[in-house]
Amino acid sequence: MKKTITLPDNSVIEAGLAGLFNSKTIMLPVAKKPVYGQEAESLKQWGVDPESGKHLVEGLADRFQVLFFDYEGHLFQNPVPDDLTPEHIVNDFLHIADQMNIRQFSYYGYSWLALAGLQLAIRSDRLESLIMGGYPPYEGPYREMLVVTEKTYQQALHQKQNALPQQAAPENPADFDWDNVTVTIDPFVTKQFMTLYQSLMDFDDRSVLDKLAIPKLAFAGERDTIVYGESFGSVTVDIVGRLKKNQSLLGQAGWDVEIMPGSGMDHTKAMQPDVVLPVIKPWLVEKLLGERR
């Protein structure tokens, strides 16, 4: 079942329900719509599943009810440059759940949608479990990401104002020059993520470490460390390093922590369905359905 939902800001988003209607519900705001043709082939070159959303939903639908939508895609089409705050995101998620007649649900998000899930968990009583992929729940790199998103916004604005030529993407991703990449995204799109991190500058995730009395899982690839060049603020966003550093402390606070092994297991690889599903599905079956792994 799919439904078009009008959000509080009057934009519309398509959400769907799949799987077992009488089972536990998993919210997947990471369910990107499939792409085909040349665009799909390009994504494959970068190690990205062009049907990742479809495969995630299908991978969980045999045991759970899945509430799915592409929230990031929605924001790219309907940017809210000055309004993407935790409150805005939480209101959107709860509104979607209400419109789909879902009261209690588990949540899986990756990268910035993982930190959005943490905000959802601490601001509502609706979650039955929380999975954060590619973003640590403790000592998250909020300040580093603010630097990166500010630089990205400035470059996007400069690009638009000066109508600079776009950099052609190389056929081989290994040849891509990340230090000299040209940001061609709409400034309104990039600004909303800067707004998000600006709004989180007073948030201390250490203060909520032991506040969530629900099952919790955090995971990252063992190579999930992103070193940004000078044009993006010369910062390092060390996702896996912070997760490893605080693994014992997180365990004491009730978090399960998984590090995906592999020399190529970076931020992009660790979000692909063939990597994610073998980790989150058995965990959800155990925590929600009471079946031993």
Topology of this protein?
Blueprint: E1 2-6, E2 12-19, E3 25-28, H1 37-45, H2 52-60, E4 65-68, H3 71-77, H4 86-99, E5 105-110, H5 112-123, E6 127-133, H6 142-162, H7 187-199, E7 216-221, E8 225-227, E9 236-238, H8 239-245, H9 247-252, E10 255-260, H10 273-289
Parallel strand pairs: 3-4, 3-5, 5-6, 6-7, 7-10
Antiparallel strand pairs: 1-2, 2-4, 8-9
Helix pairs in contact: 2-10, 4-5, 6-7
Write up what this structure looks like.
The structure is a single chain. The chain is α/β, with parallel strands linked by helices and 293 residues long. It has one domain: Alpha/Beta hydrolase fold, catalytic domain (Rossmann fold). It has helices at 37-45, 52-60, 71-77, 86-99, 112-123, 142-162, 187-199, 239-245, 247-252, 273-289, and strands at 2-6, 12-19, 25-28, 65-68, 105-110, 127-133, 216-221, 225-227, 236-238, 255-260. Strands 1-2-4-3-5-6-7-10 form an eight-stranded mixed β-sheet, sandwiched between helices. It has a two-stranded antiparallel ribbon with strand order 8-9. A hairpin with a 5-residue loop joins strand 1 (2-6) and strand 2 (12-19). The radius of gyration is 19 Å and the shape is globular. Mean pLDDT is 91; it is low at 172-176.
